[in-house]
Structure prediction request, 499 residues.
Amino acid sequence: MGMTLIWGVMNVINLSHGPIIALGMFGTFFIFTRTGLNPYVGLIPVAILGLLLGVLIYVVAVHRVINAPHLSSLLATFSVNMIIIGLGTAALTTSPYNVDFAAGSFKLGSVTLLGTRLIAALVAMLFTGGLYLFLYRTRPGKYIRAVANNRAAAELMGIPSTRILALSFGLGTMLAAVSGALIATFFPFSILAGASYELKSFVIGVLGGLGNPIGALFGGLVLGILEGIIPAFMESSWVPVIEFGLFVVILLVRPSGLFGAKR
Amino acid sequence: MALLEVKEITSGYGEVQILWGSSMYLEKGKLTCLVGGNGVGKTTLLRTIMGLLQPWSGTINFDGKDVSKLPAYTKAEMGLVLVPEGRQLFTDMTIYENLEMGASNQRARPKFAHNLERVYEMFPRLKERSAQKAGTLSGGEQQMLAVARGIMADPTILFIDELSLGLAPVLVLALFDSLKQLREQGMTILLVEQNIQLALAISDYGYVIVEGRIELEGEARKLIKDKHIREAYLGL
Prediction:
């Protein structure tokens, strides 16, 4: 969702998405192990730090290349990616960590659901709904859409586009950090763990249509279902092959995504 | 003192100089037009006034204050509002949202309901289609929306770039009529037009720009009878 927001709104492919997910994971880890705070309460500081970090990354690395060709912003966010991974490796090593936390489990017929996963799914839906309401019902949200749609015109209407872009990047980063924080409650992770989620974010974003939060949730569901079903028929190493095959097919047939605007 | 004083502006893009010292004065409550052929610097002058382009030299005074160096988004706050060439609507947003975005600045927000009523009265078609996406409108309706969005910003001076471009004559006449209405309501307007005859016909005062310089100025009803203008631009 963070990926699709930044990409759709700012036309920047954010290669620092993965490490920020990882930072979100470590955020939860440290808050949980040091303060003993419930990881779901810990989401709040993680979200706030994510937002601030995003604004910082925007101001330092992205702002000056926002109008430059794609390669420049790719390189800029990739540098941020390398910096975070480098620092993270030095400070935390690449060995796996995990958050020792459980939220019970629920039985649904013959299926057992882990509480942590169920809550993660609920929080994801909550954020999707929240983001949708924010973009379509609030003034700053509408400003983000206006800037995405036509930056020069927004500027003429008195919308400070630089601040709005910084806010979008901050929100995108916040969403990445929160998703990392949620994943950390049920999977072990290391500073490198973000990369595979970053790749998934690409697929999900394109599947759902860039800049569309509902589309991103839908894309995420499709991917989740594929990952659940495919291993029942074939080796699970086929999962990425099929996912990215689907990705290519969608790009060929409906480049604006399943939910994207028709152009 | 004129409401807006543009003095000896030079400007351009990169190394290419477009404006070679253009001066213009807008009187409060008057409809002024800036006319000239294609590529003579009309839009460049407008973009410089709006702060989308920095002047290389010269000054722009609005209401007695120097505003030459201020960025575009602060201009709307002050009451300088541009209806840009090619309309530049938020095509993925609804008509209502476009109007809402027009009223982004602090001055315009409290007047939102009042201005909304005003533009709906002027362009009833927009009211009927308020939930429709702006990108789905016809060219004429889009131009109406662009003007309406400008009015929502509660302008002291409304700048309009190429109102008539690409529109059917009957629509152009209707839009020009709405400009006359706005002037009667006391709005100061600068109309930038290639359709010289029509622009001079509804304006109070006119400037003719040629190759980045103001070549001729005067009361519009005199300009329209000027022999040189009739020969050079109107082909009469």
